[in-house]
Amino acid sequence: MAHRTAPEPPALVPAAAPEEAPAPGAVFDWLDETAELRARAGLTRTLRSRPADDPVIDLAGNDYLGLTRHPTVTRAAADAALRWGGGATGSRLVTGTTALHTELEGELAEFCGVEAALVFSSGYTANLAALTALTDPDTLIVSDAYNHASLIDGCRLARGDVHRAPHSDPDAVRAALAGRTHRRALVVTDSVFSVDGNAARLPELSAAVSAHGAALLVDDAHGLGVLGPGGSGALAAAGLAGRPDTVATVTLSKSLGSQGGAVLGPHRVIRHLVETARTFIFDTGLAPAAAGAALGALRLLRAEPHRAERAREVARSLSDRLTAVGLQASTPDAAVVSVRAPGPEAAVAWAADCRRAGLAVGCFRPPSVPDGVSRLRLTARGDLTDAQIADAVRTIAALAPAGAHQA
Ligand SMILES: Cc1ncc(COP(=O)(O)O)c(C=O)c1O
After folding, report:
1. Is 144's C-beta closer than 6 angstroms to any atom of ligand 1?
2. pLDDT grade, residue 8 (50/70/90)?
3. Which domain holds residue 80?
4. Does 189 contact ligand 1 (Cβ within 6 A)?
């Protein structure tokens, strides 16, 4: 039997002439255009790998206590890798929790004076976890305008409404809390702001959250190991450690010389994160070598608490000496010092000249600086000698571009 096919419908629109397909890869042409725009604005960023035996004095990294290469820390990392393997093998809830993770969490919590801690693969994922898991659509998140990018991204992922509060302004925070229509509120701040190294006004923020039934989330990335008794952090320094309405996040990658992050707070907060935080549940556990190194560094810091005070002392010394030679250095509350540059290109050239002269300094420029002011960023290291500090200041001053000095 012959097959009957349905008649073709009449063509209502003339068929368009087939267009020539764009060249494969043309879809990314716009990336070159934006790269060109960044280059014209002096905002190109490039990677440079450093040799293991780099002879430069490093004021660019975040190794505040100089522990990254301390033999106790590297030995702890190596032992952990030899014992537990190169990776954690799975997410924390499946196979990625080793006895090392549990020990590290216990000791971190005890050191910082909080009920419990939960270790993440980075400070970034710890911040995303805290912001997304501790908020719901009926939460107002009040976030300092100068907060770190990982807190900003946490705010973007969270389901609550975000209010960007002016920098370091507890009155504005209080007003936002008082005027809210949301059932819950979370105030979010860095403890020490990454760019200028100034400290958040934690006692006033804590008073504001308690007056308004809100919670406080403090990113103590730059406070752990530097502020508080023996480096136990900004909450301890402000007498706020262990409060039931307060949560901290930390990174293990700065003063603890390793890699990873943690959330610190009341037991019920930590339990909630274990059961609900997506960057905890769907992420491979922190590598054993990193957990081991962080634990080694933490034990070292507890045995040698003067290391924290020395990092602060080096920062003050850098700031005082740079100011004395007429540069616009920030007054450090912890271990970060910034020096104003006349513009992004001048900042990049200044940092590059310093590097050629054997001194590594950071360079912050838009979009990493919320106020648009480009800067050199120096991180004080507790293991620097007074002679090294004096040398560093001499180099920075000698290479300063026109316009870098105070008016
Ligand atoms: C304030 C602050 N929060 C969070 C992070 C992220 O931590 P991590 O590097 O461990 O992801 C950093 C820096 O790297 C930081 O400076």
Report:
1. no
2. low
3. 71-303
4. no
CA–CA dist 313, 197 (Å, integer): 14
Determine the distance separating the centroid of ligand 1 and the alpha carbon of 7, expressed in angstroms.
66
Q: Are residues 284 and 385 in the same domain?
A: no
Q: What is the largest CA-CA distance in the chain?
A: 102
pLDDT at 13: 56
Distance of CA 282 to the CA centre of its chain: 21
pLDDT tens figures, 371-384: 889 999 999 999 99
Report the nearest-CA residue for atom 8 of ligand 1.
Answer: 123
CA 78/CA 306 separation, integer angstroms: 26
Q: Is residue 10 part of a domain?
A: no
- Omega before 367 within 30 of 0, i.e. cis: yes
Structure tokens of 5?
């096919």
pLDDT at residue 43, as a whole number: 80
Structural domain total, the chain: 2
Pair (140, 255) in one structural domain:
yes
Which of 255, 283, 303 is the C-terminal boundary of a domain?
Answer: 303
148 lines ligand 1 (CB under 6 A): yes
Record the pTM.
0.92
Q: How far is the CA of 135 from the centre of ligand 1 (A)?
A: 21
- Beta carbon of 298 within 6 Å of any ligand 1 atom: no
C-beta 257 within 6 A of ligand 1: no
| Phi, psi torsion values for 390, nearest 5 degrees | -60, -40
Between CA 123 and CA 152 the distance in angstroms is 13
Residues 6+ apart with CB under 8 A from 176: 140, 142, 163, 165, 185
pLDDT band at 42 (very low <50, low <70, confident <90, very high): confident
Specify the residue for token string 């300063």.
400
How many Å apart are CA 157 and CA 149, to the nearest integer? 12
Answer whether 335 contacts ligand 1 (Cβ < 6 A).
Answer: no
Cβ(219)–Cβ(120) under 8 Å? no
